[in-house]
């Protein structure tokens, strides 16, 4: 997923600093750690990033992997309960 995040961000000309601020991080490293896989991407942050990149949350997922979608489904169900 992290490669997809970077690809979408770069294709749209959006900086890591911009996304970090959208997520409420004080420093750009807050976002870059997500993109580089150091920190996990939460569902809440995925929604914000998807909105900033003008894509659906499911589009953040790498092709041919279902891990992220499964995690989102579980997270969504927990928030709904």
Question: How does the SSE layout of this entry go?
Answer:
Elements: H1 2-11, H2 16-23, H3 29-35, H4 43-53, H5 67-80
* Whole-number mean pLDDT: 82
Given the structure, what is the number of helices? 5
Topology pattern, helix = H, strand = E:
HHHHH
How far the N terminus sits from the C terminus, by CA atoms, comes to 27 Å
Largest sheet descriptor: none
β-strand number: 0
Structural class: mainly alpha
Word description of this protein:
This protein has 81 residues and is mostly helical. The chain contains 5 helices and no strands. The protein is globular.
In a few lines, what is going on in this structure?
The chain has five helices and no strands. The protein has 81 residues and is mostly helical. α2 crosses α3.
Structural key phrases:
81 residues, mainly alpha, 62% helix, 0% strand
């Amino acid at each position: 997923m992290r490669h997809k995040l970077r690809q979408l961000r770069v294709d749209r000309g959006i900086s890591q600093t911009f996304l970090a601020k959208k997520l409420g991080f004080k420093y750009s490293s807050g976002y870059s750690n997500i993109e580089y896989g150091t920190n996990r991407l939460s569902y809440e942050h995925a929604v914000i990033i998807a909105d900033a990149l003008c894509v659906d949350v499911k589009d953040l997922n790498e092709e041919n992997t279902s891990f992220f979608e499964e995690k989102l489904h579980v997270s969504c169900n927990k928030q709904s309960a």
